[in-house]
Amino acid sequence: MAPNTEGEAPHNNFDTILVLDFGSQTSHLILRRLRSLGVFAELLPCTTKIAELTWKPKGIVFSGGPASVYDEGSPHVDPAVFDLNVPILGICYGCQEIAWRIDSKNVARGEAREYGHADVNVTKVNSHVDRLFAGLGDSVAAFMSHFDKLISLPKGFVVIAATKNSEFAGIAHEEKPIFGVQFHPELEHTPCGTDLLRNFSVDICGAKPNWKMGDFVQLEIARIRELVGDRALVLGACSGGVDSTVGAALMREAIGDRFKAILIDNGCMRLNECEEVKETLGRHLGINLTVVDAEDLFLSRLEGVSDPEKKRKIIGSTFIDLFEKEAIRIEKEAENTPNSGKVEWFLQGTLYPDVIESLSFRGPSATIKTHHNVGGLPERMMNGQGLRLIEPLRLLFKDEVRAIGRQLGIHESLVNRHPFPGPGIAIRILGDVTKERVDIARKADHIFISMIKEAGLYDEISQAFAGLDTSRSVGVFGDQRVWGYIIILRAVRTKDFMSAEVFNFDNAFLQEISRKICNEVDGVSRVVYDLTSKPPGTIELE
To answer: pLDDT per residue over 65-74, tens digit each?
Structure first.
């Protein structure tokens, strides 16, 4: 019988709020807020067929979205969602979806846009509908982001909140636990947002706020053991980043020496990366890491390729080619030993943001980029052929993974290590990849990160790196005119890596970094600092 992959899924062990995604770029923040309350939440496309759900949520949230509910082709929920008889909260577009389903004339384009801060006046009705704003006072500050609006109250509903521009900023069904708000409680700009979501998830839905990393670790270890079985071997991609390190620690805890850790050197690693990762994982976690030198293979396949999506696809496919070769080697070496068996599984440290950013299957939002852990995999793996994927962290955010790392006793230097993408420096080069360009970017990055650490700023920054623009710029060194590359410095602060703000360095410090890079890295004529937040930019350059 096939292993029960669903048996220990979090929604089968924790009260879960289902968030149906209508394509909003802030849908993930609804999950973040709910999980911060100890309530587990999971994201699915708004088009999910309710009959295909294998579990029943305690409540459902309809997210915001960029479309207009009255336009042809706009996304809509399965009507069966209203037959589940669980509480529903619609946010912005989600609120309009509730009203539109009752009568399409309830929603129309507004006369004035309402973006940014708004004062929301709470209306007391003296019935069950007051529970959503319970304890929040008579007026709350909120963040609005809409043009469309409710122009009439849906039949069977009452008003529970209003703003100067939206007389139906909050609505609730007179009898059923169905609520809608026009503002965004998931955003930090709505200070009472967490309290409102607590009122909905805990008080109205009755969800127990018992989502704890400790419980997740034990459940996930049990799930891994059931999934892998008693004999199969697991091959793991370990880069030294916190995601793959925590994944490796979980796997080692679950199946011991049947887990085989591999680091593929694709020629685009940071300075001394492979040696340091091998030494660190061995010393702190007792993991014997095998390093495979594949620099020439990767660089030859990347030759002349400048399109970032093609780079990711090539790198993802080449990684799997090499891992499958390693699987054959490991099986042969394990013959006639207590750990003999087939390598059936491939471990990746995929996180929830990787999934959300890579694939459009979780709602109608457009793909931002192909993540090498998700969309960059060959079709044979996505279709379950060859090595099968095992991704124990797939539903978690970065801070949750770090919490697991600390619980597992992983050294703080590994837990707080800045993320490094699987494709490495290849996607930090704007243009085609050559060994010369990788070497230049690698040296500049080493100087940048070293100076950040020396200044005591490393732990204040979520991610920092130096990239390279293959466009050339004129420079003057002494009396010599040079035609050199442009180095792009990037440093951001973020809680969940779904949005990020630029880190504000002192200008004198940036000038010092620029001088050192220009003086010590041949081929560089100019250094710039990227001031773009996310959104609109991504954290990586490609």
So the answer is: 888 888 888 9
